[in-house]
Amino acid sequence: MGDKKLKLAVVGLGNCACSLIQGFYYYKAMDGEDINGLMHPDIGGYRPWDIELVAAFDVDERKVGKDVGEAIFAPPNCTAVFYPQVPKLGVEVLMGPVLDGVATHMAEYPLDKRFVVAGKGPVDVKRVLKESGAEVVVNYLPVGSEEAVRFYAQAALEAGCAFVNCMPVFIASNEAWAKRFQEAGLPVVGDDIKSQLGATITHRVLANLFSQRGVALDKTYQVNFGGNTDFLNMLERKRLKTKKISKTEAVQSSLNVPMPSNDIHIGPSDYVPWLKDNKICYIRMEGKLFGDVPMYLELKLSVEDSPNSGGCAIDAIRCAKLALERGIGGPLYSISAYIMKHPPIQYPDHQAREMVDAFIRGERER
Questions:
Q1: Is the pTM of this model over 0.90?
Q2: Are residues 96 and 10 both part of a single domain?
Q3: Which ranges of the chain does DSSP label H, i.e. alpha helix?
C-alpha cells in the first residue's frame, strides 16, 4: 500500500491549508511512532503522507506565483508552525478568480492582517485541474464567498474531481448541487467543516448530554473570537448568513426539540488581532433540573483554529478518494455528518462515527 497516492488540489492557501499541508510532512516524519492527533491514521490504505498536492489556487500577491511550500507561510497566515521543514513542492500557486472572495472592509486593515489581491488575471481552473491530474479538490475560501465557492464546485464537476467543501456555502447539502455530483458520479463532502475538538462539536455533545439526563435546556449561547483572517473577514456581518445557519443547526440537531430562535445564539463575535490563529469560545447553557430547579453551565475553550480543522479535513479528503475508487457519486452522508456542521443529513455524532468506520470498511452508506 506504500505506493498509493491521492492527488489533491487546494483552493485558498490560508491558515487551514497551511496546517493541512504541514500535516502531510509532520506525520510522514512520525511514521512508525505513536501517532497523536489523527482520528484515522489509515483510511483505505491512504495515510496522511500519501496525499500529493498537485494544484493550488489563491488571489493574494504574496502567494500567487510562489511554490506552495513557501506560500503557506506567507502573510497574512498566522497559524502555528509545527513542521517548518515543508520542502518546495514544485507546485506553483496560481491566480484564481476573485469574484466575492475578498471582503471590501479588509482594505482598512494593515497589510500583514488582510488579503492583498494580486494584479494578475485568473487561470483556466478547469484546465489546470485536468492537466494536474487532481482527483480531489478541497475548498478553503473565506466565509461569504458564495459565487467563488460555486465557481470552484462547477470547475471540479467539469474536471471530474471529487469536492470537499470546508466552507458554509451549501453545496453537498443543496439538493440541486448534490444531484449534479450524483449524476456525474463524483463524490462531494460538505458543508462547513467542524473542528476536530472545537466549539461546535463541544456544544453538540453538551446539548446531547442535557437531553440524555432529562435537563430542559432553556437558553444557550456560543460566542467565538480570534485574530486570523477568518475572523477579520467575518466582521462584515452580511457574509455570515449561511455561517450562522450552519453553526446553529449543528447544535439544534442534537436536541430532542429545537429551541426558539430567541433563546439560542451561536456565531462569531469579534476580531482580536493579537490572538492570531488562536480561537476563544465561550458557551453558556441554562436549564432546569428535577423539580424545575435552575442550573447553568459555562465553558471556555481555547484552540489553535486551523490545525483543529486539519484533523477533520485529512479524513474527508481520504474518504472522498475512496468513494472515487468505488464509483460512488453524490453526497457522502457518513463523513459529512461526522465532520461537517451542515451535512445533507444530520446524525448523532456517535452514529456518524460508526457510519464512517463502516464506510471505510467498504459497507454501503445508502
A1: yes
A2: yes
A3: 15-29, 68-71, 125-132, 146-159, 175-184, 199-212, 229-233, 241-252, 305-325, 333-339, 349-361
